[in-house]
Amino acid sequence: MSREYRKIDVTGGILTGEELYTLAYIRAALSFQRLGMKWSRNVPMGTTLARKMLGLKGRRESLYKQVDDIIVSFGGESLPEPVEE
User: Fold this and answer.
1) In sequence order, what are the residues at sequence separation of 6 or more whose Cβ sits closer than 8 angstroms to the Cβ of residue 54?
2) Per-residue pLDDT tens for 13-40?
3) Which of 2, 40, 63, 80 is deepest in the core (most CB within 10 A)?
4) Kindly report the CA angle at 9 between 22 and 58, in degrees rounded to 5?
5) Backbone φ and ψ of 13, nearest 5°
6) Domain positions in the chain
7) Which ranges in the chain belong to alpha helices (H)?
């Protein structure tokens, strides 16, 4: 069963509130994934969302950095690095 993902164009000069919220959601899912956790069993992994919705390539750490850079470029704030114990 193939799932359809809505594409977000981050090359333009403006994002809607919904698109910015989606970017923040993807960043949060990637942040969870970096710590070895999964957001939910019913939601795709953060890496899948970043690749399918944003068209990004790379591994988990690279995808997190790319999504964070996109959010910062549109006026958002970068999240602090998670502390691993």
Assistant:
1) 7, 8, 10, 23, 26, 66, 67, 70
2) 788 888 888 999 999 999 989 888 887 8
3) 63
4) 75
5) -90, -10
6) 17-73
7) 17-34, 46-54, 60-73
